[in-house]
Amino acid sequence: MAIASINPTTGEEFARFDALDDAEIETRIAAAHTAAQHYRLTGFDERARGLRAAADILDAESDTLAATMTAEMGKTLTAAKAEIAKCARGLRYYADHAADLLADEPADAGAVNASKAFHRYQPLGVILAVMPWNFPLWQVIRFAAPALMAGNVGLLKHASNVPQTALYLGDLFRRAGLPDNVFQTLLVSSSQIESILEDPSVAAATLTGSEGAGRSVGGIAGGALKKVVLELGGSDPFIVMPSADIARAASVATTARVQNNGQSCIAAKRFIIHDDVYDEFLDAFVAEMGAQKLGDPTDPDTDIGPLATEQGRTDVTELVDDAVSHGAKVALGGHVPGGPGWFYPATVLTDITPEMDIYGAEVFGPVAAVYRVSSLDEAITLANDTSFGLGSNIWTTDEAEADTAIRDIAAGQVFVNGMTTSYPELAFGGVKDSGHGRELTRHGIAEFCNVKTVWIA
Predict the structure, then answer these.
(1) pLDDT tens, 434-447?
(2) Of 16, 364, 452, 456, which residue is most buried, by most CB within 10 angstroms?
(3) Per-residue pLDDT tens for 68-97?
């Protein structure tokens, strides 16, 4: 099987690689296992030096790396450079804080008849990371930084349409001074994941991707009795109540929907607007969305580049066409533009009903579904009427409304008067079909640790 880089701006292939065969995979896994036995004995200071050096490399090579990311998956150069800077920050965060996050945790020795009792966090070993193309650097770094600082080693199976970014990541930590084989990229097909995860040398896995991919990898991991963290899709609600700053909410809603060309699990996708401000919000939102420039992602004035794959655009087109055929109204966009590349414009749909596929689907493109509600209770009921539960937003200056939303929205995250995003300092993950486990902060670094209980007489 060939693994290829295809420029979504032109539809043209510009690089091709062969997948590793089974023998090569076994050799790579064995090398990772050997590296894990030594790397687990290194100290936080040594690991931190490697991560800080990796951050410095990212800073120094931002322009060339951003160009590669843009060419492979179509994000704007501006977005690519911002992603690289975020990765450097994440690396430095864990380099600075891992020792404290994983410090021995004292227990009540007297209560358990001990002179001393505590919990110690120790690495599990070799972790398989199955990662998506939409944030081809950040998705990997937010796993790798905490995992490596905890003393684990990583095997990366990246999306097949970003092989050059994957290979860059595979070499980054070696260049930064970490021992050989502590982090490796495996150019393999999805069909080879099962045998890798079932290998006794692989201790656990993490996957960011679709619900289907999560079910597959989760099932394999369960059968092999191995830990797995899953961050899957989202259909995040964006609730706007009458007390909100409507102009600000509409502006942030636009960014939240078109970020990364609309291809983000935590992008706001369902805009649930109270009757009292529905018309005002819709007018402002359509104006903001309509001002987004669709075009060449290397142009600094471009807001929305192409979708990453041809199939991705087909999926978005089919969802919009189905909605329109069942009575949805198109307030903006809704048509595939002519010319080369996999472009799709900023689109706003209203009058969405449960009979439409878009009602329950995750739309991976710059398409917003706008709903009208008459109360906060109705808004929360609609927000929860999805199989997903990743992020969510509520816009209100009423503290009681905010507290109710925080309590009742079924999601891993609630952002009040702001856009859902990820920070090293905040736990990241979802509930329901959006997956389980957490990434980032102390919750993320502990996911791939053995929490060892120590009792001393």
Answers:
(1) 999 999 999 999 99
(2) 364
(3) 999 999 999 999 999 999 999 999 999 999
Domain boundaries, the chain: 2-231+432-456, 236-416
Q: How far apart are CA 65 and CA 381, in angstroms?
A: 43
Question: Any catalytic annotation for residue 231?
Answer: yes
CA angle 312, 366, 423 (to 5 degrees): 100
Alpha carbon 174 to chain centroid, angstroms: 24
Q: What ranges make up the beta strands (E) of 124-267?
A: 126-130, 153-157, 183-185, 202-208, 227-231, 236-240
pLDDT for res 2: 67
Find out whether 263 and 308 touch, Cβ atoms under 8 Å. yes
pTM of full prediction above 0.90: yes
Q: What are phi and psi of 299, to 5 degrees?
A: -80, 125
Of the candidates 72, 83, 211, 231, the residue annotated as catalytic is: 231
Cβ 393 vs Cβ 241: under 8 Å: no
Q: Give residue 107's Cα distance to chain centre.
A: 35
Distance set, CA 31 to CA 34, 38, 40, 99, 289 (Å): 5, 11, 14, 26, 50
213-223 mean pLDDT:
96
Q: How far apart are CA 128 and CA 227, in angstroms?
A: 11
Q: What is the DSSP string of 281-298?
A: HHHHHHHHHHTPPBS-TT
Alpha-carbon gap, residue 314 to 365, rounded angstroms: 10
Distance between CA atoms of residues 160 and 453, nearest Å: 41
CATH number for 236-416 (one of 1.10.260.40, 3.60.130.10, 3.40.309.10, 2.60.120.330): it is 3.40.309.10
Is 449 catalytic? The answer is: no
pLDDT band at 1 (very low <50, low <70, confident <90, very high): very low
Q: Which CATH class is domain 2-231+432-456?
A: alpha beta
Compute the distance between CA of residue 265 and CA of residue 242 in angstroms, rounded to an integer: 27
Q: In the chain, pLDDT over 90 holds for what percent of residues?
A: 100
Active-site hit among 72, 87, 211, 265: 265
The stretch 130-141 carries a mean pLDDT of: 98
User: What average pLDDT does range 131-142 have in this prediction?
Assistant: 98
Intra-chain end-to-end CA distance of the chain, in Å: 58
Q: Which two tokens stand for residue 385?
A: 């009427």
